[in-house]
């Protein structure tokens, strides 16, 4: 009787254990989709006056500096997983771009990327940072290029992720893509068309520019929708795009002198892919290419672990 009782008990237990192991195996095999993470303990926030406005900056860690610049649809919050991977041996500096997140939008000027880059340089000055590595995504790439082009001696390495540069390489062809209609979405009525519909507006980008929209969960979408619904923030975002024509003019001048610092150009497999490196080779001489696999444009939401691993390996390389 004892033997049969053990069998009756152990068989369901074995089935339970096998089920748990199978779930764990599947979890390990699937990408770790992101949610909004907190920055590590010890990070502080500052509001630093720069280029006629105030830049909201997260700062933490110790060691050589790395500046991280976000793009549209995100804020500096997107970089928390990367900050966590780096802060023990890097000083991590994460601004919100002009008019986005918690940074100010004093007027409709200053959204050209050349001016914004000067603002980031001023932030570095205020933090007593002379040189830094750079990590950028989306519009952050454009500000990052203007920063590296104007202050090449201050940027030691640059990881540039999944977005074009106005006026460079296939820019004119890229502008024809129907997915990029928002580049020209402006005029007297755009603010009221989007007001109180920020989540709906942002959902369109999360859904159409991702490889898997489910990777961007509701909490993440609501978080950014709240930030873009702050007074003036969506209007400022439109100004970022409105400046592209001036950015293209500035970039053509910058491109006359190629960048020489090491650059890692990462394209998302379902977005810019290997084209990202080709774009960067039009403006730089030392470019290493790479692809974030199984990802659309939203690399830190869709493939955070893969992105962090590749960027960290590049920054750690001697």
What would you say this structure looks like, in words?
The termini are far apart. The chain is α/β, with parallel strands linked by helices and 318 residues long. Strands 1-2-4-3-5-6-7-8 form an 8-stranded mixed beta sheet, with helices on both faces. Residues 1-9 and 12-33 have low confidence and may be disordered. It contains 13 helices and 8 strands. The chain has 2 domains: 1-30; 36-316, Alpha/Beta hydrolase fold, catalytic domain (Rossmann fold, 3-Layer(aba) Sandwich), CATH 3.40.50.1820. It has helices spanning 2-29, 80-86, 113-126, 139-150, 171-174, 190-194, 198-208, 218-228, 233-242, 244-254, 275-281, 299-302, 304-316, and strands at 44-50, 53-61, 65-69, 91-95, 132-137, 155-161, 263-268, 287-292.
Q: What is the domain total for the residues?
A: 2
Distance between the amino and carboxyl termini:
68 Å
Major sheet summary line? 8 strands, mixed
Subunit organisation of the chains? single chain
Spatial order of the strands forming the largest sheet: 1-2-4-3-5-6-7-8
Mean pLDDT: 90
Please report the number of helical segments: 13
The name CATH uses for the topology of the largest domain is: Rossmann fold
Low-confidence stretches: 1-9, 12-33
Shape label: globular
Keyphrases for this structure?
single chain, 318 residues, 2 domains, eight-stranded mixed β-sheet, 8 strands, 43% helix, disordered N terminus
């Amino acid at each position: 009787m004892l033997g049969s009782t053990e069998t009756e008990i152990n068989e369901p237990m074995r089935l339970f254990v096998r089920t748990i192991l199978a779930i764990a195996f599947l979890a390990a095999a699937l990408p770790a989709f992101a949610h909004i993470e907190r920055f590590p303990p010890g990070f502080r926030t500052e509001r630093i006056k720069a280029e006629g406005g105030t830049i909201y900056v997260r700062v933490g860690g110790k060691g050589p500096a790395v500046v991280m610049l976000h793009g549209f649809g995100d804020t500096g919050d997107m970089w928390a997983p990367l900050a966590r991977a780096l802060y023990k041996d890097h000083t991590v500096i994460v601004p919100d771009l002009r008019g986005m997140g918690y940074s100010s939008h004093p007027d409709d000027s200053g959204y050209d990327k050349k001016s914004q880059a000067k603002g980031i340089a001023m932030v570095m000055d205020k933090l007593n940072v002379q040189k830094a590595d750079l990590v950028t995504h989306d519009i952050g790439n454009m500000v990052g290029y203007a920063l590296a082009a104007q202050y090449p001696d201050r940027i030691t390495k640059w990881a540039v992720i999944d977005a074009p540069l106005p006026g460079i390489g296939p820019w004119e062809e890229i502008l024809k893509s129907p997915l990029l209609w928002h580049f020209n979405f402006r005029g007297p009525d755009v603010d009221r068309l989007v007001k109180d519909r920020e989540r709906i507006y942002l959902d369109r980008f999360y859904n159409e520019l991702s490889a898997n929209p489910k990777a961007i969960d509701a909490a993440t979408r609501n978080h950014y929708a709240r930030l873009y619904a702050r007074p003036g923030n969506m209007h400022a975002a439109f100004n970022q795009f409105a400046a592209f024509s001036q950015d293209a003019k500035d970039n053509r001048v910058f491109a006359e002198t190629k960048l020489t610092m090491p650059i890692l150009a990462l394209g998302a497999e379902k977005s810019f892919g290997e084209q990202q490196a080709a774009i960067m080779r039009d403006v730089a001489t030392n470019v290493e290419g790479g692809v974030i696999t199984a990802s659309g444009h939203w690399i830190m939401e869709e493939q955070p672990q893969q992105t962090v691993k590749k960027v960290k390996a590049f920054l750690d390389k001697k």
